[in-house]
Amino acid sequence: MELILTDHERCVNCNKCINVCPTEFANTVVSYKGKLVHSVNHDLCIGCGECVIACNHNARDYIDDTERFFSDLAKGEKISLTVAPSAKFNIPNLYRLFGFLKAKGVRLIYDVSLGADITTWAYIKELTELNLETVIAQPCPVVVNYIEKYKPELIDQLAAIQSPLMCTVTYLKEYKKINDSIAFLSPCIAKLTEIRDANTNNMVQYNVTFKKLTSYLEKYQVNLSEYEEIHFDDIDAGLGVVFSKPGGLRENVEYHKPGAWIRQIEGARHLYKYLDHYSVRLKKNKQAPLLVDCLNCVDGCNIGTGTEKAIPIDDIDVQIKAIKKMHLEKWEEPTTSGKPKYNLFNKFDQELKLDSFKRSYTDKSDLVKVTEPTPEQLDTVFKSMYKMHEKSRKVNCYSCGYQSCTSFAKAVFNGYTQKENCFRYNLEISRLEHEENEIVYGEIQRLNELLEQKVIERTEELEIVNARLEELLRIDALTEIPNRKAFDEQLEREWNRSIREQEPLSLMMLDIDCFKQYNDNYGHIQGDLCLKNIASALVSSLLRTTDFVARYGGEEFIILLPNTDKKGAITKANTVLKQIANLRLKHDYSVVTDYVTVSIGVNTIVASALDSSEDFIKDADLAMYQAKANGRNSVFHINEQK
Ligand code: SF4
Ligand code: SF4
Ligand code: SF4
């Protein structure tokens, strides 16, 4: 049956609900919109409400009938109300609330304390008449749910008597002939499971918890002070008024059976463990308490799961003490023996039949579908979580919410959680990913280095190619000596040096005599060969590495002579002239000799910033034309003309 709800949007997978849940697997981890969230397995849930209290992300809520109760009242449904004893402590203006509810159409209002008296009366009768050795009290539906689902072997020990609520309603229906639908004003969210249980005969239709009722009143801005005070419609209860406090039943039974062995135990943390021990005790045929007075809530129903939990328990005790005194005075009659006579039970003996208040239970253990893994299966789960060794399987850090790593592995095995909810598993995954990343990173590093090396190699190759291209750009393709571009750059350098160092700079402009005739008569191939021979003769005629020879264009060559004055330049020009003549390149069509000759114009300067290198070349050119004019095969220095 569905009772606890989870808002998956709000759930942050904090695992608190697992941690507080007295059952191992009622909270299951599921995937929702790409994240892990928690859900409730309703078959495994016992409705203890611990997760609703623990979840501080408001992701947990419970089903309650408040809205339906008011809506049915508005439709004219005949509804009477039974009120839990704890309402007196939880709802301020309780009697004005009754006024409001009656105004809304509620017919009769009964105090469940009377039903508590009937329950005690029935317990005492059952214990005495059947001579029972041990009985587990069942007013708390969570205890009943736990035993029916998880400890069916204890069903025979559950008192076969209805709860105070059901005793009240039985009394109303069977003895007061009230046929209305019944609502329960309740401190308990799990009462819904009791009222919908087949064994309670569908006698109650609405579980209206204090908490949801308070929200309802706030939501609809109900001002209770506007309503008159109206009291219960029933006869006054007796000692049943203390039922809602821890040990309330015990106090009732001890009143009638002083000295009886009664185990009083409350709170989810202790109760369910105790029932495990109790079960073992019975199996071993050991003596057990006559009555186990047990409640799921540590402070009893007064601060039950459906309350605001806002009242200090001592304040409740003070109030209960006063109410108890008042109610006992009504039903106790002094006797000569000193032990007062309790007239309420005499009344019950006369008016009620025990059978009316009996109930039975159902073994619901088949709902609990949990398979116990074999050691091999558990080992497989652990290995899938990278828990290879015993130590890692006993970390038991509780961060997954489970009580142990084994319990978590069992949940994984049964599909109730996912291994990603173990933080150590995630750590291991991160570590492995880190390692993997390191390997990948190392490989990337290695490839990068390889790439860098390749880039360096290619760059060097490119630089060589570029340098070669640069070189080729400055080399004359035919003669393989520097071309005019290379000369211009060299001239700029030497020109600047001459300005800087004030050293003389000389230039020879050289032209092959009658080269047109040579070409015309010997052909271009021969002409090219002639140019190559002249070029190599010029290169070998220069003794200094600083001297620079280039092809200037056509049959013209140019030679730059750094640190060379006029005299030195003329001497060098004459040497060149001779060297060419010595080549003895046949030229039958020259007007000078039978061999190839050249004319050389020379210029010399100590350059200043006011001079121009273009003029420097022009003057050398002029000198060369003068050498031609002088009969060719000669040297002429421009300064001789000036
Ligand atoms: S307590 Fe449970 S339901 Fe609430 S946020 Fe945490 S995991 Fe989610
Ligand atoms: S109500 Fe109780 S039993 Fe159910 S899931 Fe929450 S803590 Fe577990
Ligand atoms: S102790 Fe009372 S309020 Fe708490 S679960 Fe049991 S019956 Fe409900």
Describe this structure in words.
- The protein is α/β, with parallel strands linked by helices.
- The protein folds into 4 domains: 4-47 and 370-421, no CATH class; 64-352, 3-Layer(aba) Sandwich (Fe-only Hydrogenase (Larger Subunit), Chain L, domain 3); 431-473; 476-641, Reverse transcriptase/Diguanylate cyclase domain (Alpha-Beta Plaits, 2-Layer Sandwich).
- It contains 23 helices and 18 strands.
- It has a 5-stranded mixed β-sheet, with helices on both faces. Strands 6-5-8-9 form a 4-stranded parallel β-sheet, sandwiched between helices.
- β10, α12 and β11 (291-295) form a beta-alpha-beta unit.
- One iron/sulfur cluster binds at residues 4, 17, 20-21, 23, 26-27, 40, 45-51.
Short structural summary:
By secondary structure, this protein is an alpha/beta fold. It has 23 helices and 18 strands.
Number of helices: 23
Overall SS class: alpha/beta
CATH fold type of the largest domain: Fe-only Hydrogenase (Larger Subunit), Chain L, domain 3
Q: Give the mean pLDDT.
A: 94
Read across the widest sheet, the strand sequence of neighbours is 15-16-14-17-18
Bound molecules: iron/sulfur cluster
Q: CATH homologous superfamily of the largest domain, by name?
A: Fe-only Hydrogenase (Larger Subunit), Chain L, domain 3
Distance between the termini: 126 Å
CATH class of the largest domain: Alpha Beta
Number of strands: 18
Secondary-structure arrangement, i.e. CATH architecture of the largest domain:
3-Layer(aba) Sandwich
- Biggest sheet layout: 5 strands, mixed
The percent range for helix content is 40-55%
Q: What gross morphology would you assign?
A: rod-shaped
**Unreliable stretches, pLDDT < 50, 5 or more residues?**
none
Radius of gyration: 57 Å
- Tell me what portion of residues adopts beta-strand conformation: 5-15%
Number of domain units:
4
Domain 4Fe-4S: 377-439
InterPro entries: 4Fe-4S_dom, 4Fe4S_Fe-S-bd, 4Fe4S_Fe_S_CS, Diguanylate_Cyclase, Fe_hydrogenase, Fe_hydrogenase_lsu_C, GGDEF_dom, Nucleotide_cyclase
Domain GGDEF: 503-640
Protein name: Diguanylate cyclase
